[in-house]
């Protein structure tokens, strides 16, 4: 007997929640309990009084599973709204990565040159290392890291995706 | 000046203000202040169970039979963990329940203190919502909110974890607003009223159907007795046949000519065939559970489907439907009925459809081999039904073959009379549930139809029944096997009965007597009716050890992973060993 798999899609969800203790465990736990994927999850409070947090979740699954993910999130008591940004239309996705590259000679020069192409900033430098700050979509950052691997990448910290719909529309 | 009161007093006062009459519980170190507050008041009755799991199931039985939320009070650590099965059971079957657990003092949380468990963490995914209360001033609001969440939308268990220092600390208590209207919750707003345009579409689809079927579930029971009335009216004006899940039995009267019986794995042939061949399924407060659908890609392939449910996540979860409607099922049916009548729709000509259904009925899928040598378990339930149905009994069950036989052979005319663990399938549910039902319905005849294996899982609750003089009847269909396990081993594993024999059973008659109950044994067919009469005549709790055919299996049956049309009607159609794909299915 073999386990069957289905075609999958990547969706970015914006979730607003009551900023209360355990809310992140509730959401992350729901994903693991129901076997859904989390590609990335970011959270921070976004209102003046810090009462509401916005969570951006990137998830992958067949369309029916994505629909279930949205419905399951929506029925958690402290959840205000769940918006499937991918479904909604054009939106901006950004993440930030801090990328440490170590090395000397040509690799160092090449790393700086590539960083310029990717508009990465140098935020720390020593004789034998750089730390670059790069922002962009997940794909751009993946590509940047792929190139940096060639020239001495030693460590990465990524924030995960924050996303917002384009245009006037407010969720 | 308003005097301050302790958290424990605030809790009890709030419960009383919310109309709570009964609490099922068990004391312990972390709830001593609450038990002292209970001791000093007269409004709330406490029912002392013998294990916290019994409290949770008793609260479920109370809730299911009265329509009111069940309330549980247990201590920290093992008190809470023992209650977890009943909480998970209530979540699966959408039973309104509020569970109050004691917790170690706030300062000790996280220190691995005596009887500490991370109750909030453990119950996060088996409650609808839970709270850790750290401030007695917030307690009353949280209790109100918990009852609102437990009883509205899709009902379910809500847990409040109350550290001991918060029970002792003081705050002022404000009575809730006199209007009694629930406060608007910040983020929780279940959609009760269905979208009018969707209702209109539903009416058109029902009016156009030639082979409609109403597929009803526990949501109708949860929506209240009004919803059962609406279902009867909807069936009357549309003329459509009605089937129900295990959880929905009683919402529609079994005596109606439109009743097809239960559907699903152990449902009737006519119900499953009608689902398969229908051109329109109207799912009402049911959730297309795997026990109902059988193999999904073969489930009712040619029908249009309308699904009405208050839980949006139930829609399109397992079966794609043509018209999903979010809303209270009773409300939605009321809207459909109004519109149907407003447009003066007449029932379509369903004669050909019912003629087809009658052919399926002629298979008599619930028939079973008669025997003079042994008591057939189905026969025992039929006789029990005949002897008791005039008294409109409340029936609870444990889980297994006896449960399915009870669902098949005990007919219900009214909602809130059938208490069974459907979603979680918890053995040991029936006795405490019967106790809870008897507390909520002191004058009702309450019978737990049990198996000899299940009953032992919460046998300690006999003592609770004795203490409160509850005249519950436990009718054990004793075949000396965990029958459903053995049945699956017969079907799937060539009859290799691995650990499914009930070895070393107690003498149930002596056991009954030891607990102060009446004990009875029925050993042959001729003694069956007299035994049942004797059970019913006794004014007090009775345990009946009814020795039934040991190897009878429960049919009809759709094997796991099979289609509705591949139903096994009789035991001799069963083959020995199944392939790995079948073995992997539940």
Automatic annotation (TrEMBL), chain A:
Give the ACT domain ranges. 12-87
Q: In which pathway does it act?
A: Amino-acid biosynthesis; L-valine biosynthesis; L-valine from pyruvate: step 1/4; Amino-acid biosynthesis; L-isoleucine biosynthesis; L-isoleucine from 2-oxobutanoate: step 1/4
The entry's keywords = Amino-acid biosynthesis, Branched-chain amino acid biosynthesis, Transferase
Give a yes or no for keyword Membrane in this entry: no
GO CC, sorted alphabetically, is: cytosol
Q: Name one GO biological process term.
A: isoleucine biosynthetic process
Pfam families under this entry?
Answer: ACT_AHAS_ss, ALS_ss_C
Per the UniProt entry, the Enzyme Commission number(s) are 2.2.1.6
Transferase in keyword set:
yes
- Give the molecular function GO annotations: acetolactate synthase activity; acetolactate synthase regulator activity
Query: Gene3D superfamilies recorded for this chain?
Result: 3.30.70.260, ACT-like. Chain A, domain 2
Report the PROSITE patterns cross-referenced here.
ACT (PS51671)
Task: Spell out the InterPro entries in the cross-references.
Answer: Acetalactate_synth_ssu (IPR004789), Acetolactate_synth/TF_NikR_C (IPR027271), Acetolactate_synth_ssu_C (IPR019455), ACT-like_dom_sf (IPR045865), ACT_dom (IPR002912), AHAS_ACT (IPR039557), AHAS_small-like_ACT (IPR054480)
How the protein assembles, per its UniProt entry?
A: Dimer of large and small chains.
What family classification does the UniProt entry report for this protein?
Belongs to the acetolactate synthase small subunit family.
Q: State what this protein does.
A: Catalyzes the conversion of 2 pyruvate molecules into acetolactate in the first common step of the biosynthetic pathway of the branched-amino acids such as leucine, isoleucine, and valine.
Which PANTHER family has this protein been placed in? Answer: ACETOLACTATE SYNTHASE SMALL SUBUNIT (PTHR30239), ACETOLACTATE SYNTHASE SMALL SUBUNIT 1, CHLOROPLASTIC (PTHR30239:SF0)
**Protein name (record):** Acetolactate synthase small subunit
- Source organism per entry reads Sphingomonas oleivorans
From TrEMBL, chain B:
Start and end residues of each Thiamine pyrophosphate enzyme central domain: 199-335
Return the GO cellular component terms, semicolon-separated. acetolactate synthase complex
Q: In which pathway does it act?
A: Amino-acid biosynthesis; L-isoleucine biosynthesis; L-isoleucine from 2-oxobutanoate: step 1/4; Amino-acid biosynthesis; L-valine biosynthesis; L-valine from pyruvate: step 1/4
* Thiamine pyrophosphate enzyme TPP-binding domain sequence ranges: 399-546
Q: Which domain of life is it from?
A: Bacteria
Give yes or no: UniProt keyword Signal: no
Cofactor(s) annotated in UniProt = thiamine diphosphate; Mg(2+)
Q: How is the cofactor bound?
A: Binds 1 thiamine pyrophosphate per subunit. Binds 1 Mg(2+) ion per subunit.
Question: Which Enzyme Commission number(s) are listed?
Answer: 2.2.1.6
Q: CDD domains attached here?
A: TPP_AHAS, TPP_PYR_POX_like
Q: Where is the Thiamine pyrophosphate enzyme N-terminal TPP-binding domain?
A: 5-120
Catalytic activity annotation: 2 pyruvate + H(+) = (2S)-2-acetolactate + CO2
Metal-binding is among the record's keywords? yes
GO biological process, alphabetically ordered = isoleucine biosynthetic process; L-valine biosynthetic process
A GO molecular function annotation here is: thiamine pyrophosphate binding
| Key words of the record | Amino-acid biosynthesis, Branched-chain amino acid biosynthesis, FAD, Flavoprotein, Magnesium, Metal-binding, Thiamine pyrophosphate, Transferase
- Family according to the record: Belongs to the TPP enzyme family.
| PANTHER family, A to Z | ACETOLACTATE SYNTHASE CATALYTIC SUBUNIT, MITOCHONDRIAL, THIAMINE PYROPHOSPHATE ENZYMES
Q: What is this protein called?
A: Acetolactate synthase
The species is Sphingomonas oleivorans
């Amino acid at each position: 007997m073999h386990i069957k798999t289905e075609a999958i899609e990547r969706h970015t969800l914006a979730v607003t929640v009551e900023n209360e203790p355990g809310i992140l465990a509730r959401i992350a736990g729901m994903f693991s309990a129901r076997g859904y994927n989390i590609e990335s999850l970011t959270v921070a409070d976004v209102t003046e009084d810090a009462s509401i947090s916005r969570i951006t979740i990137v998830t992958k699954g067949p369309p029916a599973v994505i629909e279930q993910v949205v419905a399951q999130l929506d029925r958690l008591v402290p959840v205000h709204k769940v918006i499937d940004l991918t479904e909604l239309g054009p939106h901006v996705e950004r993440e930030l990565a801090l990328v440490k590259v170590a090395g000397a000679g040509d690799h160092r020069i090449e790393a700086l040159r590539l960083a310029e192409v990717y508009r990465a900033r140098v935020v720390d430098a020593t004789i034998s290392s750089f730390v670059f700050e790069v922002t962009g979509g997940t794909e751009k950052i993946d590509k940047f890291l792929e190139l940096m691997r060639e020239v001495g990448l030693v460590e990465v910290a990524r924030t995960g995706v924050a996303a917002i719909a384009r245009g006037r529309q407010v969720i | 000046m308003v005097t301050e009161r302790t958290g424990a007093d605030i809790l009890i006062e709030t419960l009383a203000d919310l109309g709570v009459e009964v609490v099922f519980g068990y004391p312990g170190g972390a709830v001593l202040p609450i038990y002292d507050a209970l001791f000093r008041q007269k409004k709330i009755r406490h029912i002392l169970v013998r294990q916290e799991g019994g409290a949770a199931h008793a609260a479920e039985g109370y809730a299911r039979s009265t329509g009111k939320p069940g309330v549980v009070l247990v201590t920290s650590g093992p008190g809470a963990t023992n209650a977890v099965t009943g909480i998970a059971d209530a979540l699966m079957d959408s039973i309104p329940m509020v569970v109050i657990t004691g917790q170690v003092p706030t300062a000790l949380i996280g220190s691995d203190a005596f009887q500490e468990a991370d109750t909030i963490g453990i119950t996060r995914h088996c409650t609808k919502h839970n709270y850790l209360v750290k401030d007695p001033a917030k307690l009353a609001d949280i209790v109100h909110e918990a009852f609102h969440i437990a009883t509205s939308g899709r009902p379910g268990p809500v847990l409040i974890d109350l550290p001991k220092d918060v029970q002792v600390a003081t705050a002022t208590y404000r009575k809730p607003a006199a209007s009694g209207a629930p406060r608007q919750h910040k983020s929780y707003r279940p959609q009760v009223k269905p979208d009018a345009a969707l209702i209109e579409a539903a009416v058109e689809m029902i009016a156009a159907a030639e082979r409609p079927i109403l597929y009803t579930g526990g949501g109708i029971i949860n929506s209240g007795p009004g919803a059962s009335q609406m279902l009867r009216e909807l069936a009357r004006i549309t003329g459509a046949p009605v089937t129900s899940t295990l959880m929905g039995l009683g919402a529609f009267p079994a005596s109606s000519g439109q009743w097809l019986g239960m559907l699903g794995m152990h449902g009737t042939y006519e119900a499953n065939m009608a689902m398969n061949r229908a051109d329109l399924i109207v799912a009402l407060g049911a959730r297309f559970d795997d026990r109902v659908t059988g193999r999904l890609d073969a489930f009712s392939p040619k029908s249009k489907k309308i699904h009405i449910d208050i839980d949006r996540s139930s829609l399109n979860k397992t079966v794609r439907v043509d018209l999903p409607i979010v809303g209270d099922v009773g409300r939605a049916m009321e809207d459909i009925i109004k519109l149907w009548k407003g447009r003066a729709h007449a029932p379509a000509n369903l004669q050909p459809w019912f003629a087809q259904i009658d052919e399926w009925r002629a298979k008599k899928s619930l028939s079973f081999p008669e025997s003079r040598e042994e008591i057939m378990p189905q026969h025992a339930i039929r006789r029990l039904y005949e002897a008791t149905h005039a008294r409109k009994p409340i029936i609870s069950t444990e889980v297994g073959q006896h449960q399915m036989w009870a669902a098949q052979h005990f007919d219900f005319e009214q909602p809130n009379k059938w208490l069974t663990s459907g979603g979680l399938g918890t053995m040991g549910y029936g006795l405490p549930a019967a106790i809870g039902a008897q507390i909520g319905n002191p004058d009702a005849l309450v019978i737990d139809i049990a198996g000899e294996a299940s009953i032992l899982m919460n046998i300690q609750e006999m003592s609770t029944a004795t203490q409160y003089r509850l005249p519950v009847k436990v009718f054990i269909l004793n075949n000396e096997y965990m029958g459903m396990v053995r049945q699956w081993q017969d079907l799937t594993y060539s009859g290799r009965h691995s650990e499914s024999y009930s070895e070393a059973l107690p003498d149930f008659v002596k056991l009954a007597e030891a607990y102060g109950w009446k004990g009875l044994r029925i050993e042959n067919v001729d003694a069956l009716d007299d035994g049942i009469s004797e059970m019913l005549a006794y004014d007090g709790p009775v345990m009946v050890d009814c020795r039934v055919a040991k190897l009878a299996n429960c049919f009809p049956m759709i094997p796991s992973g099979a289609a509705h049309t591949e139903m096994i009607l009789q035991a001799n159609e069963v083959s020995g060993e199944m392939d790995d794909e079948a073995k992997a299915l539940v």
